[in-house]
Amino acid sequence: MRRTAPAVALAVLLGLPAAVTAVLLRGPAGYAELGLADPGAALRVMVPVLRTVVDLAGAATVGGLLVALVVATPPAGDDAFSPTGRRALGLARWSAWVGAGAAALSVPAVLAETLGGRLRLGPDLVTVMLARGEPVSWLLAAVLGVAAAVAAGEVRRWTGGAAVLGLAVAGLLAPVATGHAADGLGHDLFLPALAAHVVAAAAWLGTLGVLALVGGDARAWWRAARIGTAAGIVTVVSGAVAAGVALTAPGGEGVGPDYTVLVLLTAALAVVAGGVLLRRRTGRVAWPVELGVLAVVVGLSAVASRAVPPVQAPGAASAPAAILGYGLAAAPDPWVLATSWRPELTSLTLALVLAALYAGGLRRLAREGARWPVGRSVAWFAGCALLVVATSSGLGRYGPAVLSIHVAGHMLVATAVPLLWSLGAPVVLARRTLREAPPGGREGPAEWLEHVLAAPTLRVAVNPVVALVLVVGSPALLYLTPVFSLTQPLGWLQPLMTLWFLLVGVLFLGPLVAGPPNGPGLPPLARLTFLLASMPLHALVGLDMLAADHPISRTPVLPADGGSGQVFVDDFFVRLRLPWAPDLLADQHVAGVLAWLLGDLPLLAAVLVVLVGWSRQARTEDADRRADLLAGLGSR
């Protein structure tokens, strides 16, 4: 570690002069387009430099946790972490503290940048902070960094380390949610692509840097190279998607030329880093070269985050396109819903990855000559396809603009997709196909799966009472409280809400339909009781939406001048200014009916599945009893 520390530090610190040089070369470009005054050279340099520090520290935190969890794993059955993994956890903890400090400093720096270089204390400062959003995201990143640093010092289990990794990733993504990717034409594609780009680049850079510091054997370097290759592919592909969206907006010609240059230069360096990775795996290039190139990419990306992309050009987007990221020209009749596809990258990627993993398991079973029920495979792939339809077809495209379509998509994701996935029995397939580590061998995917399934948090979440509260309480909290009106304008939150509905549906229906991953589970009668109990509760959500005498999309908004005047009510759907916009209250009544039907019909199907399984179990038990009786008579 002592021999490699200077090389790692030198390579990583290349990101800082790269950021400073890029800032000085581009000058005060971008501030006029955003309606802001030039804050001065000091702040123009300070803000991207602080972001570079946050990103580099976040990469070290993510990399340290990946090294501890995946790369330098101990032999199966031993301690949760190897000595190398413990050192990596220590690095992750200190990196999280550094990142939290830089994020905290970014709050006043960004506020001062917004106010033209002068930070004026007073009540108006809070209004500016909330209006801009970006300072709040940096404050959140600082809080998440502190939480990750504290938790990393207390990790004792593999699942605890995985939870800290989630905190570290959330800290990296908080500033992305309020950055330039969250606004303008195509931001529904730009934002998730950039989020994947940031996380993948952090995993690539961090894993390599931390392993170089803590050291590792050939097996650890092999695993790190596998992670680097996968993360490198995601980095390049997601970066290409983000750049393609950001640079091809109609009406943005001539706007943000500095952004174009920075993006193209960063993309070229990312490709170079990928080539260096391939040559390093063959022993032709040393790892400090790859580390240095990646650090420069991080620095240039931090500067690019302060530039104005063409998608934010004045007049580049209509009202719905500016709010949603795309236009909606035609009314949503059945033909339009069936043909108006627009990829929702988060759910689409999840569906493709899960389908590929399941197909890989089936292929391994086929090579071994084992058989797998066709019905299970059909159910799993149908669930993946339905997830894509619910989020990327016209249902997903028009959902943010029409409440009834929004509810239909969420109910399919929360009930129908989890039911199909439960019938696919993915845990059974994984346990049959993932090879366990040999005696004395390092832990692998089979052991990691068992760590997750045995996690105390998961055991609590799959408890039928807890899962029932989650699966019924989630739509009730969203649609029957002001939560919907407050969150609907936050486009970056919509994919996360979809994933949440999907998760609670899996937690509820999985153990009731397919049985829990560990243990015999509830008897059939108890499973039927929970399923039947959830049906009227789902119906109540729909009935409440039917009985409401005002649209639930009304949003309380503070006065535009930031004063203490009366709070007025704005409506998100009205702000879209769609020429074919439906009557909000009538559409809400349709949404109530859909919430009732699409929430209860899959549950009714789940009841039938449990009844069929119970009937088969009873017939099997009767046959076993008759066989035992005949055997007893024969022995006499």
Automatic annotation (TrEMBL):
What organism is recorded for this protein?
Answer: Actinomycetospora chlora
Give TM regions. Answer: 53-73, 94-116, 136-155, 162-182, 194-215, 227-247, 259-278, 285-304, 345-366, 378-395, 407-429, 460-480, 492-513, 525-548, 593-614
Membrane-protein topology: Multi-pass membrane protein
Q: Which InterPro entries match?
A: Caa3_assmbl_CtaG-rel
Q: Keywords assigned by UniProt?
A: Cell membrane, Membrane, Transmembrane, Transmembrane helix
- From the Swiss-Prot or TrEMBL record, give the protein name: Copper resistance protein D
Q: Where in the cell is it found?
A: Cell membrane
Domain of life of the source: Bacteria
